[in-house]
Amino acid sequence: MNSLEKIEKFRKQTYQILGNARDALFDLMDAVLTTRQIISFVELSLSPVFRREWSSIYEALQDGQPPRKGLMQEYVKHIPDSEDIVLAGDHTAWSRPYAKTLQDRTYEHRPAAIVGGKPMTNTLSKQVLSPY
What we know:
Structural class: alpha+beta
Distance between the termini: 20 Å
Shape: globular
Number of domains: 2
């Protein structure tokens, strides 16, 4: 089975697992994966791979509750067997200078221009580590 066939099989199996609102969720998944920088849900609805109206994003997230366990089992099936384990990491910090009551707020360096022109800002920080 070549790579394209593997991707097609994976996509079909994932689609079957999604359940309610699967068409909109699947389009949303494609939009998230192909959009370089996501500012808002409305921006995702403008993606060429999202074939629905912008309100479908909100409806899909409200109505569709994908079974996480089933999706994770499907994802794990496609991790290649290897002696070497490769992990991919991501750290994203969302600037939240005015969110004074946010519990997980931290101070982090931001190389881009921010409020007040200071390189440090209050952020909501998220980290992800996953097998690659």
